[in-house]
């Protein structure tokens, strides 16, 4: 096992990793920018190192500063959390060159899945169904037009290096293709430094369903069921739940086993999520994330498995502690991502939290790093915290969620809590009848909650 883990992240995920380390008896090192001196992860870690000024590129993405922090503190492993350097293959390689373990997959798998065109090709070869589309770069405008005709309209332009919904464009007919190509390319270039685009058939009303996996790097891999993340805004997840209201046990076993088999074939190492769109009973692979995800607690609540603990154990060479048969699903869990944003315009609302009261009680979990008097800095994402609620059934879970949301107080900044209060009372949500465009349609229709 590792002796000391440096957590190369901030906010709730830094705290989440720190908790797992404490339970495993591993010493922790927090790193922070000058904007995060008073952050909770810094206060609770055994040691902390300031790695730079507020902008992420100068601190949380500053590889030389992180290496120096490892050297000064003698950390033998780095947990990257999500975002920042978590899917940076070069970072994983540089750490290895300095004899520091990267708690994550091998660089070649990060690189493979980071290129969404290569990832789709690999998925297809591994027997995973993919969204029909172009097999490679779109090339010239004439070639793009030809490929688009082959796939048919409406279609989706996507960036090979994509993430966070950037570089994506819906194209409903051919007259829109060239301008969409230009704007998607420009967005991809500025966001990722790579303007390679591909195209996909646009699925009209699918759900987003993703499978959680864990591999030992030696050909052993299990799946931990699915999360339904269909409630999205601008292709960003807002509400996640498990099990999916759209799957039964057989469908879950089928797709879970297809994915686990593929992970065994590539000898996947660590935690990962294989994302699908699901329409008319069929799954279509869109991408794989080679890191722990924001919504991992949904899976933890329905399996009673601490994913970060397992992730650390596997990274340390401890192998899988569980067989597929030992993974049992019970009850239902829902996660709400509560952001410091105006619930109508979604404009970020950084500032000081003057009153904070998180909900509690049976089946209620809050993963957050904020506290009474905490000042949310303007430099990073606007996540205040995640409310995760568990119940024996989906209806018990919804009942508990409503109660927990009503109890949650965050004063001083605007938050998206009113949106979740409204969603938990919407008939389609209560019935589990929603798809990836449902939330945007709801927001347009309802004029938004107060
Ligand atoms: P990113 O890596 O930028 O998050 P993804 O490929 O994971 O992009 O897609 C993000 C979201 O965009 C999906 O969850 C879905 O809502 C929507 N989406 C992606 N591909 C398609 C498609 N072919 N048809 C319809 N919606 C899509």
Written account of the structure:
The chain has three domains: 4-103, Rossmann fold, CATH 3.40.50; 132-201, Dna Ligase, domain 1 (2-Layer Sandwich); 207-445, ATP-grasp fold, B domain (D-amino Acid Aminotransferase, Chain A, domain 1, 2-Layer Sandwich), CATH 3.30.470. It is 34% helix and 26% strand. The mean pLDDT is 96. It is built from 15 helices and 20 strands. The radius of gyration is 21 Å and the shape is globular. The chain is of the alpha+beta class and 450 residues long. The chain has an eight-stranded antiparallel beta sheet with strand order 13-12-9-10-11-14-19-17, sandwiched between helices. Strands 3-2-1-4-5 form a five-stranded parallel beta sheet. Adenosine-5'-diphosphate (ADP) is lined by residues 131, 156, 162-165, 200-203, 208, 232, 235, 275, 277, 286-287, 436.
Keywords:
single chain, 450 residues, alpha+beta, Rossmann fold, Dna Ligase, domain 1, D-amino Acid Aminotransferase, Chain A, domain 1, eight-stranded antiparallel sheet, five-stranded parallel sheet, 15 helices, globular, binds adenosine-5'-diphosphate
Low-confidence spans: pLDDT under 50, at least 5 residues? none
Strand order within the widest beta sheet:
13-12-9-10-11-14-19-17
Number of β-strand runs: 20
Helix content: 25-40%
Tell me the number of helical segments per DSSP (H or I, 4 or more residues long): 15
The helix-and-strand class reads: alpha+beta
What binds here, in terms of ligands, is: adenosine-5'-diphosphate
Shape: globular
Relative strand content: 25-35%
Radius of gyration, taken over Cα atoms and rounded to an integer in Å: 21 Å
CATH topology of the largest domain: D-amino Acid Aminotransferase, Chain A, domain 1
**What is the name of the CATH superfamily of the largest domain?**
ATP-grasp fold, B domain
| CATH class categorisation of the largest domain | Alpha Beta
Mean pLDDT across every amino acid position: 96
Largest sheet: 8 strands, antiparallel
CATH architecture descriptor text of the largest domain: 2-Layer Sandwich
Please report the distance between the alpha carbons of the first and last residues: 50 Å
């Amino acid at each position: 096992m590792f002796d000391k883990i440096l957590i190369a992240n901030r906010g709730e995920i830094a705290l989440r990793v720190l908790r797992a380390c404490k339970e495993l008896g591993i010493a922790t090192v927090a790193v922070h920018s000058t904007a995060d001196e008073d952050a909770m992860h810094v206060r609770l870690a055994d040691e902390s190192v300031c790695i730079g000024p507020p902008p992420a590129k100068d601190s949380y993405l500053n590889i030389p500063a992180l290496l120096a922090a490892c050297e000064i503190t003698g950390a033998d492993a780095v947990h990257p959390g999500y975002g920042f350097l978590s899917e940076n293959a070069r970072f994983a390689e540089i750490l290895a060159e300095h004899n520091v373990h990267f708690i994550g997959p091998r660089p070649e798998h990060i690189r493979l899945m980071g290129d969404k065109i290569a990832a789709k090709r690999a998925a297809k070869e591994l027997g995973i169904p993919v969204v029909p589309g172009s097999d490679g770069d779109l090339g010239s405008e004439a070639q793009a037009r030809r490929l688009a005709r082959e796939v048919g309209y409406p279609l989706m332009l996507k960036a090979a290096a994509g993430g966070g919904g950037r570089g994506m464009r819906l194209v409903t007919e051919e007259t829109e293709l060239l301008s969409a190509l230009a704007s998607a390319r420009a967005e991809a270039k500025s966001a990722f430094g790579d303007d390679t685009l591909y195209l996909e058939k646009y699925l009209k009303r699918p759900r987003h369903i993703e499978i959680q996996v864990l591999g030992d790097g030696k050909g052993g891999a299990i799946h931990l069921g699915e999360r339904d993340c269909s409630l999205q805004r601008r292709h960003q997840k807002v509400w996640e739940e498990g099990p999916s209201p759209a799957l039964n046990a057989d469908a879950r076993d089928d797709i879970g086993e297809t994915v686990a088999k593929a992970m065994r074939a590539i000898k996947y190492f660590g935690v990962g999520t294989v994302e699908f769109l699901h329409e008319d009973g069929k799954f279509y692979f869109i991408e794989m994330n080679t890191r722990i995800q924001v919504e991992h607690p949904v899976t933890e609540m329905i399996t009673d498995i601490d994913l970060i603990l397992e992730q650390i154990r596997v990274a340390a060479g401890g192998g899988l502690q569980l067989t597929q048969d030992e993974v049992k699903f019970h009850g239902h869990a829902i996660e709400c991502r509560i952001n410091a944003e105006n619930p109508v315009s979604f404009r970020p609302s950084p500032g000081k939290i003057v009153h904070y009261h998180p909900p509690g009680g049976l089946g209620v979990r809050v993963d957050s790093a904020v506290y009474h008097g905490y000042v949310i800095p303007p430099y990073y994402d606007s996540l205040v915290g995640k409310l995760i609620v568990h119940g024996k059934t989906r209806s018990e879970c919804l009942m508990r969620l409503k109660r927990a949301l009503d109890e949650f107080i965050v004063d001083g900044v605007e938050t998206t809590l009113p949106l979740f209060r409204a969603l938990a009372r919407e008939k389609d949500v209560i019935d589990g009848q929603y798809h990836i465009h449902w939330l945007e349609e709801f927001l347009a229709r309802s004029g938004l909650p107060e």
